[in-house]
Amino acid sequence: MALVDYSSSSSASTESLHQQPPAKRHKVGDSETSTPGRLSSPAVKVDGQDGKPSKRSAMPPLPSTFHDLYASTVRQSVVDDPSLHHGRKRQTPHIVGNWPSHLYIEWNPTSPEYDMLVNLVQDVETELQGKVKLHNFLTSDLGSPLPLHISLSRPLSLTTASKDDFLERAAGAIQTGAVGPFAVSPRTLAWYKSPDSDRIFLIIRVASRDLLGKGAGALNPELVALLRRCNGVASQFGQPPLYKHHEDGGSGDEAVGVAFHISIGWTFDVPGEEMSLRAIKVFKRSKYAEVRKWEIDVSAVKAKIGNSVHHIPLGRAGKGGIAGRPEAPDYF
C-alpha cells in the first residue's frame, strides 16, 4: 500500500495559504457589512415581510433513560476509603467480585424545583447556625444538579453469578405487581437516622398524590406494593429487606407508608432538639407552600447494578396507579 506523500516544507504550506481567494464580505441587512479580519454575524432568517426572526421548533424532550448513561461517578479507589467521601463508610462493605446494587425511583427536579430545594437547604443551614455541618445531595462536586431518589431497597451486594437473575426477577416482580404509573407529592421535612448508618439525613417525606390530605390509611399504597415486590426479590438472594423495622414496630402498611422519602442532605452531627425543630419548621413557611403542590411522576423503577443502570417501566394503569399491562423492561 502506497504511503500518502505529505510535504514537509513549511514554505509550501505558507504559499498555499496565500493562494486562497480572499474572503467575501457578507451583508447583514442592507447597510451593515463585515469588517475584514473579524467574524461576521450569521444572517438572521426572517418570516414574511415583517422582518421578525422565525421561531425554531422546540427541542424534543430527552428520553427517561438518558440520565442512566451518566449515573455513575469516576472510581477514585479500589478499596473503601472514607476520606474520599467526607468520612462516609459503606453500609454494606464491598467484597471483591460482588456488585453493589440498589432499586429505587429516580426524580430529576426541573430548574425551578432545583432552585427551590437549594433555597430550602440554605434556610435549614441558617437555622442550624453553623453548629451542624450539613452536606447536600443536590449538587455534584462540579456544581451540577444531581438526580434524587426514593429507595425501594437497602444497599445490596450481588455476586457475578446472580446479578442477571436478580435483574430478571426484579423486572418480572415489578411489572406483574398491578402497579401502574402514579404520582407522589412532598409532605413534610424531617430528620431520619438510618438504622445501619452513622449519618442523619435531612429528608422530604412523600405521600401518594391521590391520597394526600385524606387522613387515615396508608399514605403510599403504590410505593408499599412496589416495596413488597422488591423486598421479596431481595430476600430470594439473601439480601436484607428495606423498612423491616417499620413493619415490626408499627401497624402494617400504615407504618411502612410514612417511611418513604427523598434525602436532600446529611450530617454526622446530631442537632439539638430545639434546633432540629426550628430547622424542620422551615418547610412550613409560605415561600415553600408551592413545594407541597409538586407532583413527582413515577413511571419506572431503576435497578443499579455496579455501574449499570437499568430502566424498568411500570405497567400501564388508569388514575391511581393500580392494575395494568406491563411494558418490556429496558435493560440497556
Automatic annotation (TrEMBL):
GO cellular component assignments: nucleus
Residues annotated as the enzyme's active site: H149, H261
Keywords: Hydrolase, Lyase, Nuclease, Nucleus
GO MF entry, a single one: poly(U)-specific exoribonuclease activity, producing 3' uridine cyclic phosphate ends
Keyword set includes Oxidoreductase: no
Subcellular location per the Swiss-Prot or TrEMBL entry: Nucleus
Entry-linked InterPro entries: Usb1
Bias (Low complexity): 7-16
EC number: 3.1.4.-
Positions of the UniProt region annotated as Disordered: 1-64
Principal subcellular localization: nucleus
Domain of life: Eukaryota
Protein family: Belongs to the 2H phosphoesterase superfamily. USB1 family.
Protein name: U6 snRNA phosphodiesterase
